[in-house]
Amino acid sequence: MSDEIISKLRQQIEDLQAQLSERDDDVNRYKQELIAANSQLESLIMNLNHDINVMHQIQKLLIPTEFPSISGFEFSTKFIAGGQSGGDYLDIFSHMDKLRFGVLVSSSSGYGASTLLLSILLKLTGTMEARTGAEPEKVVEMIRSEAVQSLKPEEFSDVFYARVDRRSFEMDYCLLGDISVLVQEYSSGELRLLPATQGPISAQLKQVKASQKLSLNPRDRIIIVSKGVLQAENIEGEAYGLKRLMSSIAKAPSKGVHELRNQLLFDVQNFASGKNQKADRTVVVAEVKDRVIKLAKKN
Question: What's the pTM value of the predicted model, to 2 decimals?
Answer without folding.
Answer: 0.75
